[in-house]
Amino acid sequence: MALTLPPFARSLSSKLLLLTVAFVMLAEVLIFLPSAAKFRVDWLNARLASAHLAALSVVAAPEGMVTDELEAELLSHVQAYAVDVTLADKRVLMLMRPDQPAPMARYDLAASGPLDMIRETLALLLRVGNRVVTVTGPSPKDPAVGVAMLVQEGPLRAALLEFSGRILWLSIIISLVTASLVFLSLHVLTVRPMRRLVEAMMAFKRDPESAEPAARLATRRQDEVGIAHRELLSMQAAVRQALRQRERLATVGTAVTKINHDIRGILSSATLLSERLLDSPDPQVRRDGPRILAALERAAQLCGQTLDYTRDGVAPPRREPVALARLAEEVGEALLVEHSQLPQAAAPVWQVDIPEELVLEADRGQLFRALGNLGRNALEAGATRVTVAAVGEDGHVRLSVGDDGTGLPTKVLDRLFQPFASSGKPNGTGLGLAIAREVARAHGGDIRLDGTGPGGTRFTMVLRG
Fold first, then answer.
1. Model's pTM, two decimal places?
2. 451 pairs with which residues across the strands?
3. What is the 3-state secondary structure (H, E, C) of 240-297?
4. Highest mean pLDDT: which range of 5-9, 63-67, 283-287, 336-340
5. Is residue 198 predicted with pLDDT exceeding 90?
6. Which backbone phi and psi does 195 adopt, to 5 degrees?
7. How far, in Å, are 108, 207, 281, 344 from residue 38 at the CA level?
8. Does the first or last residue of the chain, that is N or C, have fewer Cβ atoms within 10 Å of its Cβ?
9. Residue 108 CA, distance from chain mean position
10. Measured between alpha carbons, how far is 102 from 99 in angstroms, rounded to an integer?
11. What are the residue boundaries of the Histidine kinase domain, all occurrences included (predicted)?
């Protein structure tokens, strides 16, 4: 099925674009309020400065006398109805029109704080009408000179609206440019890699065993996106390996199913023939006869258990009282006989440190198989001494197998209990530890690796008592 992406209006890219524009506009609004307040104060200060200059013109006139026409022209230049100039709380000059209206509000620039200026600016923008107000403050030309003037708010409001329009268009342009740059950056850094992730996951869903789509995820990025790509690659590789293992397991199960009947027939014949050894006149043959019969019985059980494992895993345990010391000794005897067939310098030592009275309700055959797998691994690793110990505590039994071999290869530690994956031996199958874990879990416990190294390896099974 082809990858179906959402339309642009509902895509991640459009959401990023809209959010970027919205956040930039919000930032511009937050910046606009102080800017508009400063524009208003600067506009009024400019009028105060003009009023001060007008007063200086009057002072410079001969004997400080001005005509009514000059006074009206000066007030028209200042755009004020009246101007009052003081120095050290003493009135120096006052210009006024004869028809001046009464003020409706008073603004003191020297006493207004930043929040007051912002509040007054917002009120001016929202107010409809042309009020007459009194504005006071120190002259920008000489802070020692106080200036008061009676002016209309209309010219100020018109200038403030023009300033706001310029800021609005500038904000829109900045928002679009910034949003475009952020959009392109996020598209390259985030959206496109995420799309590749989605495509790779859908391709993996269609064909998990194909590695071609995953190869396109290779990246050297060290950020979160790069980590996500590499983790997805690792997960896909692990799943493919698990699928191959299941396929191999299914193949083994099919093969075992086909040959299981024949092997059981051969073992039955061997068992019938071996029973005659019990009547042999040779004492040594009579002593070895029961061991041979027990080995054949275990082989027949192994065929059935292997078939069950490849089909359904380890079968539910058939619990019975099992003396662990005796069981461990029997496992050791079987493994030492098996090991004696190999060329070696000296026979290994199989040591059992288990109290004779320690009895566990368990499946004897499954425990024999699990201990046998652990012991066989130890002997094949070159151990000269294998120690089996057990202790009962808090309703559980801790059964451990330790050796003095060369230790496990580092490369198999991460996949120690996976079927067909954890064997460090050239001819190993990797089933020994996997079966041991399933046996332990079937008995309400688990198995763990306590330690491994040049001094040996130690496994511990915790079984419910």
1. 0.45
2. 458
3. HHHHHHHHHHHHHHHHHHHHHHHHHHHHHHHHHHHHHHHHCCCHHHHHHHHHHHHHHH
4. 336-340
5. no
6. -65, -40
7. 15, 65, 121, 97
8. N
9. 57
10. 10
11. 258-465
